[in-house]
Amino acid sequence: EEPPFDAEAWKTLTDADNPDPKPTRSLASKLSIGVSTPFQKAHPQIAAFFEKVEFPIDPLNRALATMSEHHTAPREVAQAFLKEHPEVWKAWLTEDVAQKVEASLK
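User: That's the sequence. What structure does it adopt?
Assistant: Structure tokens below.
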């Protein structure tokens, strides 16, 4: 677990010449899914779905670390995320679609 964000510690991490970098959490950042205008016009429901997607940084970092450190397949990591964090992805979906996703994970 990373310590809370600390601006002074962040400066030590971004200074390549600093001999004693301090640990700190990264700043929160917004993940955006970009699509072209033709895609948005052709698939408005998918574009609307993409606008709802938000990933908390901790589960995202754990998923990326699992893929990198353990060479876990992205599909397997995605399924684990869906099973472990329904409170996140259910906010992106309608109730009926969320129920179908949940049923498929069993």
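The chain is about 60% helix and 0% strand.
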